[in-house]
Amino acid sequence: MKHLSLFKKLFIYLDPKYNLRCGVVPVNAGFRYAVSAIDKDNKSCFLYYGNNINKALFVIPPVAVKTTLSDTKVSFIRSPLNNETADSWIVRNEEHIYPPGFAADQVVNEWDVRDKSIYSATATKDSLRKYRDSIPEGNFILSSISVPLWDLSILYSRFISEPFVIWKITEKGSILGYVKDCRLQSLCNFWPDYEDLKQDKEKIGNELSPLIRSLTAGENISPVIPYFENEKIALPADFSIQNYNIGKPPQINSVPVQYHEVYACSLHEETHLDFANISDTQKSLTIEKKRRTFLFALKGTFITIIALSLFLALGGVVIFGIQRYTDKRARPLQTYIKQIEDGQHRLDSLKTLFRKKASFLSRESIVTYLLNELQLVFPDGVWAEQIEISEADEKKWKINIIALSYSTALIPQTLSNLEQVEGIGNIRMIYSEQVKIEKTKKRVIKAKIEGNWKNE
């Protein structure tokens, strides 16, 4: 990662071909932010970091940001599917997914399938509420809330090729994550905090060895990477863990170690393993679209003004001369031009009459066309309970959809797929609620979606 000058950073910041990615993480009494830019080839540029995100994002507010649950307790499971569907795995392992002592209506479960394995994470609704409340209000929207250490494990895997364990230590306690094949495999909370590390280092070292062995299912891993939120804290020089080597966080140019986690959040890869609200995720898509549209318009306007200025400055005299010459040579042709214009008027009248006749026949095929297109927008895990198509006026049709989904994270993807259908616009989710299917007794997310289709 190259160090970028302030001018280059500002240029990238205002370039519409880059997607702005902003991460935010609560730390102690405040919070940290990091801003990155991702191009179409998924190459990243680190722009800014600090403790006041509103100062960094003043150009085009509001901005969608991504965060992680940090040290919030999460029940995390990774398991191979072995040719089993994700839905059946969820049903079969329901009692293992929920934390002990909590009912289904007290927790939120999200899952994702990658490389023939399912990743499931469950957090209590109360802990999610407290975490959201811990982030100060600002001119931004939380578009993504990932599992603790999920993004950091992906970032560190770019620099560490072998399996390793991340040991994050905060003033509230510790959390360990086992990382293999560039993905978080297992997760657990641990009791030591900053003060405990100073006072009980020998006890902590003795307890870590069997805990890591259990976390990694007995696999030989090296190293254990300690990560501190506070740059003034470090492991004691004589601290050791039996049978395990202690490594150091990788060196990432321009990014201080204490900002690695929030930088990783800014590089967050979209996944269904996300605890963000559906409404906030939908708003974030709209925000990014508006930003890119604004910057494209700004860039186009600037280029147009420069081009016109040069054209007028250098070609004014030439244009005047050509105009006079053309007028003189075109006078004998005026009669023929008049005849052509009259013929064009008659042709336009015939086209108008044809369009009126053809519009009646096209209405019958519109409903069939829309139904065929709408069948393709629902991803696996989402289906339509009801679809209504009604004609609003001559060229506009209103669409009402009642969709059911096993996961809240699939609704934004459905909305995004609808927006890709040619002619469909103004897609919005009216409401979403959790309901129970009478036949199967399963709980699903029921969402009402409205939109318009224009026959251009």
Largest sheet: 5 strands, mixed
Distance between the termini: 46 Å
> Could you name the CATH topology of one domain?
Alpha-Beta Plaits
Low-confidence stretches: none
Average predicted local confidence, pLDDT? 83
Q: What count of helical segments does DSSP give?
A: 12
Global geometry: flat
Strand order of the largest sheet: 3-2-1-4-8
Describe the structure.
It is a single chain. The chain is flat. Among the domains are: 292-357, no CATH class; 361-454, Alpha-Beta Plaits. The two termini are 46 Å apart. Helix 6 crosses helix 9 (260-266). The chain has a 5-stranded mixed sheet with strand order 3-2-1-4-8. Strands 11-10-9-12 form a 4-stranded mixed sheet. It has a 4-stranded antiparallel sheet with strand order 13-14-16-15, with helices on one face. A hairpin with a 2-residue loop joins strand 13 and strand 14. It has helices spanning 6-13, 53-56, 86-92, 94-97, 125-134, 150-157, 194-199, 201-215, 260-266, 278-330, 334-374, 410-420; strands at residues 19-27, 30-38, 44-50, 63-68, 75-80, 107-114, 117-124, 140-146, 164-169, 174-180, 183-190, 224-228, 382-393, 396-405, 424-436, 443-454. It is of the alpha+beta class and 456 residues long. Helix content is 38%, strand content 29%.
Name a few traits of the molecule.
single chain, 456 residues, alpha+beta, Alpha-Beta Plaits, four-stranded mixed beta sheet, 16 strands, flat
